[in-house]
Design a protein that fits this description.
The structure holds 2 protein chains of 2 kinds. Helices cover about 0% and strands about 55% of the residues of chain A. Chain A is mostly beta strands. Chain A is globular and about 45 Å long. The N and C termini of chain A lie far apart (about 40 Å). Chain B is about 0% helix and about 50% strand. Chain B is built from no helices and 11 strands. In chain B, strand 9 and strand 10 form a beta hairpin. Classes of the chains: A mainly beta, B mainly beta. Chains A and B meet through strand 4, strand 5 and strand 10 of A and strand 4, strand 5, strand 9 and strand 10 of B.
């Protein structure tokens, strides 16, 4: 049961261009969404989050958009840099569950080409 | 950024042996977690721990697994009798009420 889906396993983008990573979810109880970045042999690093009461959150080059009616969120990175090359995981949690556990997507490997 | 530290970074063990993975989470955080990632797969929730007891666990977290926080500092995951399929990266995480911070992981290899 994949409650959080990232349908693109990989994405290549030219340096300086925009990277758009997508994520879909099925559980309408999710009320908090996050993006994590992961390098090989390291733990996930928090990138940006969004609460379900918002539809956009911006932090520097990173913007997350949430479309609740479509149960879809996306991460925009602009401009993309070679150091952004990593695996990006979308995660969701239902605060009402009381545990704040995250359900992760399968990840999208981003490669930014110099 | 706050740090969650895990030891060891890599553990090799024989099938059937017990292993203990250790984590020092952020002291003022409330919830502690173990996740795992089998090579090439997604990060999966194992267990959450709050107020010195398990608050939720997944189907993966069967009787072979246990967690404890014996001294209010270290947070441990014990696997009693390891199986080959337990080979994975195990991540400890801690959260207050927003984002979780993850440790760098322990790579467990069961041979």
């Amino acid at each position: 049961d994949q409650q959080v889906k990232q349908n693109s396993p990989s994405l290549s983008v030219q340096e300086g261009r925009i990277s758009i990573l997508n994520c879909d979810y099925t559980n309408s109880m999710f009320d908090y969404f996050l993006w994590y970045k992961k390098y090989p042999a390291e733990g996930p690093t928090f990138l940006i989050s969004i609460s379900s009461i918002k539809d956009k959150n911006e932090d520097g080059r990173f913007t997350v958009f949430l479309n609740k009616s479509a149960k879809h969120l996306s991460l925009h990175i602009v401009p993309s840099q070679p150091g952004d090359s990593a695996v990006y995981f979308c995660a969701a949690s239902a605060g009402t569950s009381g545990t704040y556990k995250y359900i992760f997507g399968t990840g999208t490997r981003l490669k930014v080409l110099a | 950024e706050p740090e969650v530290t895990q030891t060891p970074s890599h553990q090799v063990t024989q099938m059937g042996q017990e292993v203990i993975l250790r984590c020092v989470p952020i002291s003022n955080h409330l919830y502690f977690y173990w996740y795992r990632q089998i090579l090439g797969q997604k990060v999966e929730f194992l267990v959450s721990f709050y107020n010195n007891e398990i608050s939720e666990k997944s189907e993966i977290f069967d009787d072979q697994f246990s967690v404890e926080r014996p001294d209010g500092s270290n947070f441990t995951l014990k696997i009693r009798s390891t199986k080959l399929e337990d080979s994975a990266m195990y991540f400890c995480a801690a959260t207050g009420n927003t984002e979780a911070f993850f440790g760098q992981g322990t790579r467990l290899t069961v041979v």
